[in-house]
Amino acid sequence: MTHPARPHWLRRPDRAAAGLAYGADYNPEQWPREVWRDDVRLMREAGVDIVSLGIFSWARLQPAEDTWRFDWLDEIMGLLHEHGIAVDLATATASPPPWLTSKHPEILPVNARGETIWPGGRQHWRPTSPVFRRYALHLVETLAGRYADHPALAAWHVSNELGCHNVYDYSDDAARAFRDWLRARYSTIAALNEAWGTAFWSQEYGDWAQVLPPRLAATHPNPGQQLDFKRFSSDALREHLRAERDILRRYTPDVPVTTNFMVMGGTKGMDFAAWAADVDFVANDHYSEPGPQARDELSFSANLTGNIAGGRPWFLMEHATSAVNWQPVNVAKKPGELARDSLTHVAHGADAVCFFQWRQSAAGAEKYHSAMLPHAGADSDVFRSVARLGATLRELAPVAGATREPAPAAVLFHWDSWWAAEADSHPTDRLRYRQEALDWYTAFLNLGIRADVVPLGTPLDGYRLVVAPILHVVSEPVAKTLQGYVESGGHLVTTYFSGIVDERDHVWLGGHPGALRDLLGIRVEEFAPLLDTETVTLDNGLRAVLWSERVRVTDQDAAVLARYADGEQAGHPAITRRAVGGGSAAYVSTRLGAAGLTAVLGGLAAAAELESDLPPAVRGKVESAVRRQEGARFAFLINRSEQPVTVAGVPGEPLVGSRGPDGAVTLEPRGVAVLRQT
Ligand code: GLA
Ligand code: GLA
Q1: Residue among 159, 318, 321, 327 whose CB has most ligand 1 atoms within 8 A, to mutate
Q2: What CATH number is associated with residue 340?
């Protein structure tokens, strides 16, 4: 079944020699055949060597239940192969065709209010619909059978951005699947009642059949039910991923299977750290939202993706050459941003750089979304930047296959804590988990200290300092892990609203933060969140918002690093640090924002003897990231600022960038240099 010339992504033994992959989603069905030849020619000109094909092609491939059309796909696969362009072939199940939803409207999702999500957009399918599953798997099987031996086939792309629009479905199918999921988790209805705390508000269930998704309710639905529904919904999509993958593996055991994750901004519904085990290589999509931290957020997401991939190379499946079309105002990228964004992903482990999409659509909902080949055509700044990036990626061929070099510090990321901490009926609804985590990451960048963003569960022993922002859900084993980390010399930093509940969302009793109280050597009796109009000042001059609380120090080894200077908590501790052998456990009881955290983290890092590996003059201006493989270390230097920055004293041969007469590397505004160090 195998083809000798098959260009496997990542599994191909000569992958490293082949360099970094470059390409896009390619949607030839939007264009007449005459355009296709032009496409492949320009792809070659830009250095494109892989495209994702067929993502939204279901209606074209199967125009009616018993009608299949592969001629066009055969032709384009052949044409791409002739031109040396490999195919990441989608299973085409992302958007069900009209004939299917007309015949089986019962596959359409239902929202919490009981409203049907109609066709007209995309991804209008219930993750748990057995009918949808049957049709989708039939399509997968048909495609897998037909293209198993195609020489262009490099990887399989399951569906597309699973859960982007359909993660929460409240239909009867979802109710049935949710019950099965709960039965597997709790075994008995009594255990479910206990976990959900149903003694409250007369919610005790007598039978599984009475259990429903958290549909529109008179007031706050049960928090345990809400948290489990989030976990279930992520798992339900994962199960769909596995079902498609299993068919693909049966037909082509040697072709890797992936799906594009969405580790970015506000995409909250899918626990991609858990999903990573289900794909042969991790792929991610990333789109920035404008704002002062847009660049740092991109780095944060790329970093987390790299660590979800276990430090191994991953595939940047989509990002934008310039503007997107789905934000309130869609900002075009500035000169240099396209390359800087792409290379930031490479710095954090991406071995493929791809865009949505190859040719900008003339019609449809995404016609104003940028592409590699814009409406203006090849005679355009975007296409010239695209072609230049293609050339840069070729210069970076030696990086292919290199793993991430672990940083000396880490920021912990935990989907359960994100979900639980932002639930309703809490002390404040203004808390933003990911923003707090990002602010800590920005603080590391401001100090020029490399930090990994790692999912909870990653071994911590290699890290000198670990920040666990709003680690709200702390089970007993997690509490023990953190304690063990500190006792063996690690420096832990955590924040307000951490360690408050266990995995069932039950409060740890006896004073907050229950699960971490002894480790931190503090005790809090009551939260005192701040109104939007309130700020408080600490005695180190920092301004705090969102949260405060009356912290009491209970352990003689816990020192007060800062106190509240005004407001209700005036004179009481705001930041503490307990020494534990060679390690420590620090606590920040309020929200300080990126600038405030930079000051606080500076002190905590110094106390932990954690230092920047950048020359003092460029700390904060330059982000550094490192990849390595046998015999080589690749240092990426990324200009975070809008001014040129000169970096002196960093060794290595430039693969990207150059040294001036004085030996220093000058980074243009938004510029990137890559130095090969041996
Ligand atoms: C997602 C999808 C693409 C496209 C882009 C636009 O990432 O996967 O099909 O819609 O968004 O930003
Ligand atoms: C009302 C209800 C109580 C409780 C409070 C919460 O007063 O009667 O059961 O829910 O609201 O503020």
Answers
A1: 318
A2: 3.20.20.80
Ligand 1 atom 1, closest CA: 161
In the predicted model, residues of the chain with pLDDT beneath 70 are 1-8, 10-17
| CA–CA gap between residue 95 and residue 118 (Å, rounded) | 12
Residue 196 lies in a domain: no
**Smallest CA separation from ligand 1 atom 5, residue:** 356
Tell me the C-alpha distance between 371 and 360, whole Å.
5
What is the pLDDT, as a whole number, of residue 423?
A: 98
- What one-character DSSP code corresponds to residue 402? P
Contacts of 248 (CB under 8 A, 6+ apart): 91, 140, 144, 156, 158, 255, 257
Q: Is 285 in the pocket of ligand 1 (CB under 6 A)?
A: yes
- DSSP bridge partners of 676: 634, 653
Q: Is residue 178 part of a domain?
A: no
Q: Is the dihedral of CA 174, 175, 176, 177 positive or negative?
A: positive
Give the count of domains, the chain. 3
- Identify the nearest ligand to the CA of 163 by its number: 1
Q: What is the pTM of this model?
A: 0.97
Q: If you measure from the C-alpha of residue 356 to the centroid of ligand 1, how many angstroms do you get, rounded to a whole number? A: 6
Residue type, 365: A
User: How far is it between the farthest Cα atoms of the chain?
Assistant: 79
**Which of 373, 403, 433 delimits the end of a domain?**
403
Residue 390 and residue 257 share a domain: yes
Same domain, 591 and 667: no
Last residue within a domain, chosen from 403, 431, 464: 403
Are residue 390 and residue 446 in the same domain, yes or no?
A: no
CATH number for the domain harbouring residue 631: 2.60.40.1180
Ligand nearest the Cα of residue 220 is 2
Same domain, 349 and 240: yes
Domain that holds residue 264: 13-168+234-403
Amino acid letter, residue 208: W
Which atom of ligand 1 is closest in space to residue 260's alpha carbon?
8
Q: Which residues pair with 653 in a beta bridge?
A: 676
Which ligand 1 atom is the nearest neighbour of the CA of 161? 8
Mark whether 366 and 389 lie in a shared domain.
yes
Whether residue 369 has its Cβ less than 6 Å from ligand 1:
yes
For ligand 1, whether the C-beta of 324 sits within 6 Å is yes
In-domain check, residue 5: no
Q: Are residue 508 and residue 373 in the same domain, yes or no?
A: no
DSSP 543-595: EEBS--EEEEE-STTEEEEEEB-SSTTTTSEEEEEEEETTEEEEEE-SB-HHH
Active site residues: 161, 318
Q: Which pLDDT score is estimated for 462?
A: 97
pLDDT in tens, 239-268: 999 999 999 999 999 999 999 999 999 899
What is the predicted pLDDT for the residue at 18?
77
187 within some domain = no
